[in-house]
Write a sequence for this structure.
């Protein structure tokens, strides 16, 4: 192998080492970050298990589809009380669907 070949091989090996160190740092950093729950995980360990005494505030457009295909909508949001099962729509709301 020529001197040029040894230099190129050394540079490739150095680049591989630097890349390995960079990936290791990123993985280590990712593993040490605190877990942030999003979506249904905010309610508890499962979506059906909500913490007691707390309500869920939904902000923005909300659409709820019923079993018969009816749709309950609000463009401003809703408040859900898991203790009672009450859903209070905020602002103007509409109910559309099919009647059998």
């Amino acid at each position: 192998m020529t001197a040029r070949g040894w230099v190129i091989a050394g540079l490739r090996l150095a680049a591989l080492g630097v890349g390995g160190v960079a990936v290791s740092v990123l993985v280590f950093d990712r593993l040490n970050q605190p877990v942030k729950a999003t979506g249904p995980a905010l309610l508890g360990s499962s979506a059906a298990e909500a913490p007691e005494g707390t309500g869920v505030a939904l902000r923005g457009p909300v659409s709820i589809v019923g079993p018969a295909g009816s749709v309950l909508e609000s463009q401003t949001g809703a408040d859900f009380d898991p203790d009672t099962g009450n859903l209070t729509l905020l602002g103007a709301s509409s109910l559309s669907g099919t009647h059998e």
User: Anything to note?
Assistant: The CA atoms of residues 57 and 96 lie 23 Å apart. The mean pLDDT is 79. The first strand starts at residue 56 and ends at 59. The two ends are 84 Å apart (CA to CA).
